[in-house]
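Protein modeling request. Please complete all fields; requests missing the sequence field cannot be processed.
Requester role: graduate student
Desired output: 3D structure, token encoding
Chains: 1
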Amino acid sequence: VESPASDEVPLHEKPEDANEGCVGVSSDDAGKAASCAGCPNQKLCASGEAKKPDPAVADVKDRLKDVKRKILVLSGKGGVGKSTVSAQLSFGFAARSMDAGLLDVDICGPSVPRMLGLLGQDVHQSREGWSPVYVDDKLAVMSIGFMLPNEDDAIIWRGPRKNGLIKQFLTDVNWGSLEALVVDTPPGTSDEHLSIVTYLQDSDIDGAVIVTTPQEVSLMDVRKEINFCKKVNLKVIGVIENMSGFICPSCGHEESIFAPSTGGAEAMCKKMDVPFLGRIPLDGKVARAGDSGMPLAQLDPNSKVAQAIDTVNKQDLAADRQLTPTGDRGAVGSRVRVNPGVEARASVASNTARVEQ
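Delivered output (357 residues):
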């Protein structure tokens, strides 16, 4: 009897370091199939231990029980503006008097601290856990960028260490009550994405906003991201086409810098049956807003870019559940730091932070 094809097994059924052709931890053949030979998880799967739920999933559910809305920002392609969209969506939620949070799980390229105007800030610890950094009383932020001794330090970690920090962000950060939590992710469909989806599987994820640029080189990777969402049963809230045409500020002429040679994001969405949320034009104000850590609506509220972001916020909230007021965020305690090459570990009992190799 042949084992089922690898792509027929749900991704959450496969251990991170599973062999190619993994039959899944819930299969009757787990640990016994020919494809299991030499897999480091073979004994666990054969004994049935591997199919037991990760206790961190329940911990995450409990920690985020007062977070009403959880949105992942994804893209298969790098450099398309995920962090920009994440930052501006978060600013937009906060501008609506919603208590919002932004979690940066791009471990190797954490740009959120700069885009939120929070460079040089520290993460603190209290009895309730790690306290996020606040832009104002409506917007909380967490990123590894706050934990580096030097903002230019490289994070040179393999998958398991990155996954460990993502778990800490989800289980140790005291977000309190939020009406929206936006999660900014790195490009691709790899370890970080599997980790965040796995840990949030029982926490009622609202879905993913996917960012692309108009040209086919970007769309070909974004299609993979959409298929990833389908495989892990993650709802696609919609796709944003970023850098969609440049409008000359002098004459008003619009030029397609990234030409949509295959119809752009809207045509792709129709073909793949996912919602199209809209277009964000290419504008120098976006770069200035990111570098200065400002909301576009504050920099130029009447610009087409600010209006496009506001439209995305409105569409994203259109089908939202009823939101309720939020509560206490907890006290601030000792600072938490992490050095490149080590994982952060916080001791609640001693109210101090330490790092371990």
